[in-house]
Design brief:
Blueprint (H helix, E strand, L loop, with lengths): L1 E6 L4 E8 L3 E9 L1 H5 L6 H23 L8 E7 L3 H18 L3 E5 H12 L7 E6 L4 E6 L5 E6 L5 H11 L7 H8 L24 H17 L5 H27 L3 E5 L6 H13 L3 E3 L10 H14 L16
Parallel strand pairs: 1-4, 4-5, 6-9, 9-10
Antiparallel strand pairs: 1-2, 2-3, 6-7, 7-8
């Protein structure tokens, strides 16, 4: 089954052609990161306009790189949520028009299900059930993946996402947007015990996390140092932040896997590219006899291939959408 898939939930426009959920024939991406870096974060209106400009040429590029014609496409897939509503609407309405014009089925895909499915592309042997740690700029959650379309959230952030925490702290440190990679680069060689930073504990749910306290603590630390004229150990602070985020995520991932009896864990989302989190996950899973799948860096960020991968399994289990399909800023997984 050849699926033409679209992703436009935030600031990357993507179009891809995927065969049978596992084989990527093309994956064309247009990033807006440099543009939004001027503002220190994503500007929704600008993102939407750039999606409009990019999506049609990207579609032609994806088809050309895949070596297929429009008529050979079997179905059209698109991210319908969650994400920036204006950005999502561009992708959803374009996909609807393509499906209508080509008389092809339309498959809606949840953005985070797509991130999880990126692992199917990288690891053909991977099959549910498993536990997924989904960590990105907008979402942080532990998902029990019972089947390709049967999933349940067992833990999540109560406030900020892990990626948002990295981005906001990077901005305070004067690092470029998006802040994940600059923070990771700065942390290399830094002392992760340079600063004592808080770790959260959610009293009524041991698998939930919170990053607002960490973010506030670092912002206050940097501002107080500036007011006193004191120098900040920037590599040490970046390393301490990475350690604090990892200490929130990794033990809870292992605890959730134990509670659910899962012997396989996968990571998904942009923050899964963080070197400290990857290293800590590898060590913790090894020590606990859990098999770990870490997606390659190229599949951690938003892309169309992951949407095409998940769309294949959605098509096997759920009805196709019609032309009333809408976009949703918030959407249960």
């Amino acid at each position: 089954m050849l699926i033409l898939a679209f992703e436009s939930s935030c600031d990357e426009t993507a179009a891809a052609v995927v065969r049978d959920g596992r084989e990527v024939l093309s994956d064309a991406i247009a990033s807006q990161a440099d543009l939004h870096a001027l503002y220190g974060g994503v500007v929704p209106e600008i993102a939407s306009r750039k999606h409009i400009e990019a999506i049609a040429p990207l579609t032609d590029r994806a088809l050309q790189e895949a070596g297929v014609t429009r008529e050979e496409i079997d179905a059209v897939a698109v991210t319908c949520g969650p994400g920036l509503i204006g950005a999502l609407l561009v992708g959803v309405n374009f996909a609807k028009s393509v499906a209508f014009a080509l008389r092809k089925p339309l498959i809606p895909v949840h953005h985070l299900r797509g991130h999880i499915a990126a692992n199917y592309i990288a690891f053909p042997e991977l099959e549910p059930p498993f536990l997924a740690l989904c960590i990105s700029g907008g979402n942080t959650m532990l998902v029990d993946v019972r089947g390709y379309t049967d999933m349940e959230i067992v833990g999540a952030t109560r406030d900020d996402a892990a990626g948002e925490c990295f981005d906001k702290i990077a901005r305070v440190l004067g690092l470029p947007y998006p802040g994940g990679k600059p923070m990771d680069d700065l942390a290399q060689g830094g002392d992760d015990r340079a600063y004592a930073l808080p770790r959260s504990h959610v009293a009524d749910s041991e698998l939930d996390v919170s990053f607002s306290g960490l973010k506030t603590a670092v912002v206050n630390l940097v501002h107080n140092a500036a007011q006193k004229g004191e120098a900040i150990d920037r590599p040490g602070l970046a390393a301490s932040v990475a350690a604090a985020v990892s200490d929130e995520l990794v033990p809870r991932t292992i605890a959730a896997a134990r509670q659910l009896g899962r012997r396989t864990v996968v990571a998904a989302g942009g923050v899964a590219a963080n070197s400290r989190i990857r290293a800590d996950l590898e060590r913790a899973c090894r020590e606990n006899g859990i098999r770990l799948y870490l997606p390659p860096l190229r599949l951690c960020g938003d892309n169309g291939a992951m949407i095409g991968a998940q769309a294949y399994y959605e098509s096997l289990c759920t009805p196709y959408a019609d032309m009333s399909l809408n976009a949703y800023a918030n959407l249960p997984i």
